[in-house]
Q: What sequence folds into this?
């Protein structure tokens, strides 16, 4: 169970109550201003990430091997999109969990990422096999 879903709103509410007890309605106004500022910062970051991703082909990354090395379980989809600067190609059924996205590089290597609830749960690197004639 994800405690962050419950702890963050409770902490925010406790902060507003504490602001009211300490400074009255002026404290509530200041706490609300801080909360709105935080939401606006998050929204601005999200829009910047999506604007950068809009200028790249869907599912493309410069190096799948480097992406695979940087990925860690628990990363959000927004963080992975910020790292790749491209939207992932959806491989699963739209709107169903888990979501599987794929990023491919120029050498046809690709990283397949599985997201559950917006968080990375598993990632796997696939590299194409070289023909035996080319390897020799």
A:
């Amino acid at each position: 169970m994800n405690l962050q879903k419950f702890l963050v709103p409770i902490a925010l509410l406790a902060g507003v109550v504490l602001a009211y007890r300490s400074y009255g309605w002026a404290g509530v106004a200041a706490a609300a201003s801080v909360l709105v500022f935080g939401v606006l910062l998050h929204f601005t970051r999200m829009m910047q990430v999506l604007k950068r991703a809009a200028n790249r082909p869907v599912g493309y990354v410069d190096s799948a091997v480097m992406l695979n090395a940087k990925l860690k379980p628990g990363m959000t989809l927004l963080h992975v999109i910020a790292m790749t600067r491209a939207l992932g190609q959806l491989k699963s059924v739209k709107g169903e969990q888990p979501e599987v996205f794929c990023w491919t590089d120029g050498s046809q290597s690709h990283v397949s990422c599985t997201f559950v609830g917006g968080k990375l749960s598993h990632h796997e690197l696939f590299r194409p096999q070289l023909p035996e004639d080319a390897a020799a």
Remarks:
- The two ends are 52 Å apart (CA to CA).
